Amino acid sequence: MYDTREKAARDHQWLINGARNEGLEVGREEGLEQGKLLGTIRTCQSILGLTKPTEEELSQKPLEELRSLATELQSTLGSRVV
Q1: DSSP letters along the chain, please?
Q2: Which of 8, 40, 61, 73 could lock 65 by a disulfide, CB 3.0 to 4.6 Å apart?
Q3: Is the alpha carbon torsion for 67, 73, 79, 82 positive or negative?
Q4: Per residue of the chain (82 residues), what is the pLDDT tens digit?
Q5: pLDDT of 36-48, one tens digit each?
């Protein structure tokens, strides 16, 4: 009975650790994507001569909004180059 209880406790801890690691990995991937988007946005704004929001202001925006802004700026930049 003791061994069964110990195994259950180890299994439970293993599941918690696995979930934590998976959450960290997802957070890491989102952080990398956010960093790339921020770099793209800042570069496009600089080339286009647009006023730049602070890094903090951009960082608070959701990923979907950052994606949309990056796409919009790249499109604007592309239409000016052509």
Answers
A1: -HHHHHHHHHHHHHHHHHHHHHHHHHHHHHHHHHHHHHHHHHHHHHHHT-----HHHHHTS-HHHHHHHHHHHHHHHHHHH-
A2: 61
A3: negative
A4: 888 888 888 888 888 888 788 778 778 888 889 999 999 998 988 888 888 788 788 888 999 999 999 999 999 988 875 5
A5: 999 999 898 888 8
The structural domain count of the chain equals: 1
Which amino acid would we find at residue 41?
I
Residues 44 and 70 sit within 8 Å (Cβ to Cβ): yes
Instruction: Indicate left, alpha or beta for 52 from its phi (over 0: left) and psi (-120 to 50: alpha).
Output: beta
Instruction: Give the other-Cβ count within 10 Å of 24's Cβ.
Output: 10
Neighbours of 39 (CB within 10 A): 11
> Which amino acid, one-letter code, is at 61?
K
